[in-house]
């Protein structure tokens, strides 16, 4: 059986230039406006607080729009991703912005070996990251391995409850069909297109993904010596997760058009390494 990383890497390699050219990532606005940060980091900023002077790493950084945004807020940032095409776009963006951000090509589970143990004040990971990983426990072990004592994890992610939804019926009811809990075998998807506006015709449509329940995520962090300091569920996500049933606001966040209080769509968790 082909390795899930190889399958997913060609998927992301193909999408990286399409994403960089899409108005949804707003790269030209980042270049044109010296104080601009990504919509994702702008959403996170009130909870994220002051990151000035922090040694930070952005895991699964993709094309680097959130990574350079952290740098614009004053952090000394490293970005890590397994997709060389994504990192090419990230390095090009950092260069256009005149920012000193170092990017590393590696699987997230190899981050400690590549970047060094207990070297960071902040581990940042954003929307759409952990679903590509088969083991949330290994991810939490990696986070703990990267953080210095007292260092902090900041993660906002799509809610596992959202990822159980198959579709929205004509009467507005949500259909739960997919696994909530982590499974040994991946969910295998073969779907055209991507989550941003693009005219690029994409050929690599196969992906392997995993859901991870909230209890599994928090327990994994606790098991690896992190103390949960904040957990907040949100009624929005930064992409149209349920097409035709959502409305976008002026922040670029999407919520259910009807009954938005029915389903958590994303969450933010913060944790500090204590042991």
Automatic annotation (TrEMBL):
It comes from Aeromicrobium terrae. The keyword rRNA processing does not apply. Keywords: Methyltransferase, Transferase. SUPFAM superfamilies: S-adenosyl-L-methionine-dependent methyltransferases. This is Class I SAM-dependent methyltransferase. GO terms for biological process: methylation. One of its GO terms (molecular function) is methyltransferase activity. CDD domains: AdoMet_MTases. It comes from the Bacteria. Pfam families: Methyltransf_12 (PF08242). InterPro entries: Methyltransf_12 (IPR013217), SAM-dependent_MTases_sf (IPR029063). Residues 58-153 form the Methyltransferase type domain.
